[in-house]
Specification:
Number of strands: 33
Strand order of the largest sheet: 25-28-29-30-33-32-31
Helix content: 25-40%
GO molecular function: aconitate hydratase activity; iron-sulfur cluster binding; metal ion binding; RNA binding
Strand content: 15-25%
Largest sheet: 7 strands, mixed, barrel
Number of helices: 30
Family: Belongs to the aconitase/IPM isomerase family.
Distance between the termini: 21 Å
CATH superfamily of the largest domain: Aconitase, domain 3
Keywords: Iron, Iron-sulfur, Lyase, Metal-binding, RNA-binding, Tricarboxylic acid cycle
Structural class: alpha/beta
Pfam family, one: Aconitase
Domain Aconitase A/isopropylmalate dehydratase small subunit swivel: 719-849
CATH class of the largest domain: Alpha Beta
Number of domains: 4
Mean pLDDT: 92
Length: 921
Amino acid sequence: MSANSFGSLSKLQVGGKSYDIYRLDAVEGSARLPYSLKVLLENLLRTEDGANVTADHIRALAQWDAKAQPSKEIQFTPARVIMQDFTGVPCVVDLATMREAVRDLGGDPTKINPLAPAEMVIDHSVIVEYFGSPQAFERNVQVEYERNKERYQFLRWGQTAFDEFKVVPPGTGIVHQVNIEHLARVVFDRNGTAYPDTCVGTDSHTTMENGIGVLGWGVGGIEAEAAMLGQPISMLIPRVVGFKLTGELPAGTTATDLVLTITEMLREHGVVGKFVEFYGEGVHALPLANRATIGNMSPEFGSTCAIFPIDDETLSYLRLTGRDEEQVALVEAYAKEQGLWLDPSVEPDFSEYLELDLGTVVPSLAGPKRPQDRISLSAAKQTWRRDVQNYVKSVLGPADEASDESFPASDSPAIEHGGDGDKPRHVDANGSGRPHNVVPVTLDDGTSFELDHGHVAVAAITSCTNTSNPYVMIGAALLAKNAVEKGLTRKPWVKTSLAPGSQVVTDYYERAGLTPYLDKIGFNLVGYGCTTCIGNTGPLQPEISKAVNDNDLAVTAVLSGNRNFEGRISPDVKMNYLASPPLVIAYALAGTMDIDILNDPIAEGTDGPVYLRDLWPSAEEVAAIVESSIGKEMFSKDYADVFKGDERWRGLDIPTGDLFEWDEASTYVRKAPYFDGMGAEPEPVADIHGARVLAKLGDSVTTDHISPAGSIKVGTPAAQYLQDNGVAVKDFNSYGSRRGNHEVMIRGTFANIRLRNQLLDDVEGGYTRDFTQDGAPQAFIYDAAQNYAAAGTPLVVLAGKEYGSGSSRDWAAKGTALLGVRAVIAQSYERIHRSNLIGLGVLPLQFKEGDSAESLGLTGTETFDITGVTALNEGGVPNEVTVKADGKEFKVDVRIDTPGEADYYRNGGILQYVLRNLIRK
């Protein structure tokens, strides 16, 4: 059937130029759809081919039943793909390997090429090795290039070898900020056709683009690769949650406070796998930067996207960020012509409804380990005192200072000693005090102080979530200015850092004259990249790290990021809090979480005690500096040669040719193993027999737990591999930087230092019981998996709710598959990880409602048989399969949700499916 079966192809005239468009009003029912579904509808109209996309698919979307559960499958073709280097390097490794696989199967390797724009921003590799000095930025960049030379050479080769693939070099900015400030089109113009910009990315926070009206979300790297190769994304037409905003934010609150409030609300409501769309009069009160902040944290809500329609604020932002007037005119004309322009008086059909009066938002933090655990700033002190008792062992002792906070009594012994064996930790027996373990520390420069539980060891202005927002960034700098003028500086135990999402931030700091104040209190520029938010905090000062670990101190981190999962920020830090940039600085000045920061003095200044109210800038002052200090010319200058890079980048030696020349000695980039021994036709799907449990896990296990991005701990299998290959400990770099080497990443799977495998008692880290050995002793998960593989034993993982939440991290699925795990049985999954498991040929199974490993009496010591999987060979997808675990038998749901996903699983993975289709063609 032709693409014009609805008579939708039409012309749009804009400023003397004519564009082809696919009119939404040609399809009955389209006007009532939410903005996000209108964008999907246009996508189907434009890609209708009678096979993947048919007229029936289009009608199903136009006649969407808002209240129905998702059941209709559609094929969505994104306009472009965006990547960051941690997830992007393995993508390019896979594409390079696919070229060789195509050659080996008799095809043309150059057919492996992106068919739509694919752009990568290198932002995840810079680590805060140096801080608190004017030289920090230059020294960190130098170390970054020294460590990552192999990776960067590989990416430069990819930029020359693949069509439609561009790389934004290191030291430019964070991918999502670069995306909204420069790369995002909002409305595409390609070959004379205008259509909505849609973009999937290999980072879960791709949703930041939702703030400027671009529909997109994070996907696993393998799904992104398939999209680059022209494979549409199979999805069910989702439920859409309408989130109505009214009122205005009160003075003293920030976009961070708002997004933490929304995160808490949406997690409680339940939006996993759903679209969230904002509407109402309150949207007009939100600057574009605030909308982008909200869109950014969609993964923390659990939603697929969190989108704002196009309006005048969108156009103003496009002009500010240097888009030309022709593009801005096209966005306005197209949005108004297609019914994509925000009309606050119109309420589209939504599946579910929520509402927030912006005037009720209060200053907030979130922590100590999940973004949805919002804490009112007024309750931060007593909440920390409660939560720290979960992180400090043997805490009871004589009562410390009186406290009016009330906590549950503890049943622990009356007194025990701390990790140093000398000083007792104290907490009131009724729980009303707080644990102490005061440890004297002297730094190399002679600075002496006492370190205690709750002291802020890391204070980082980091992450695209907030550094893209000039209101909170200017607010932070003004707070720094006020602090300097009152004689304050950071506490000496705080590792401070400033890592903006783009060079524009430092430009407007310079223009406003605020940089010297940030430098004065230790918030010197350390890099343009994710840094602490992704776990690249770098080491604490050795004396501090030793004191923390020798005495089991529960020190804290305060960061302006979007993630605070256990073990993510720093291996030395147990409790992590998300906060606005001004609050990050305030806590660096205070030096502790054990403070009522709204009412207690933050520190002693030159003229006496200084309170937060003495430092906090007014909204009017912030707005005035934003208005006077930020201009279009900044964006035009900084993005003029965004793909060119500096002399370091341009000076990298790169191989040539269509096929990459693999270096067997490389510990960064190795040929991927996914296509080894792959035939032109897939093997039949088989049931699983005699499987053992590799890990039995609880609720909220994140992709960080499964595949950490941060430091590689000495003594672990990954560290041993690197040392065996001649890598010194100081050059280990991070797991994230080594994702192009499957040997490191397999060994790092389930290696998070905070992972708790319930097969073991009170043990943290990447360990399990090895049932191939007499007595099933404790072993590294990697070592046990190798023993199981040698014995021909398949593996399963048992888990609780929200399995695989957090980052899009395809290595969480890749590593799982390469360890030999054939199936995961969980109570529920986060969207991206479930999809990634299928994309790697791992079967996602779900306990029946009300069932769990505990309710079924599963200990993880059983041998598992899973039958009924072979029904997939008949072309359909079984709703459930049978699990036998020793004497227990129960049914579980099969979470292969679409026919497209079934095709991927039957082929052993999505890339194998795409590759075989290319060969057939």
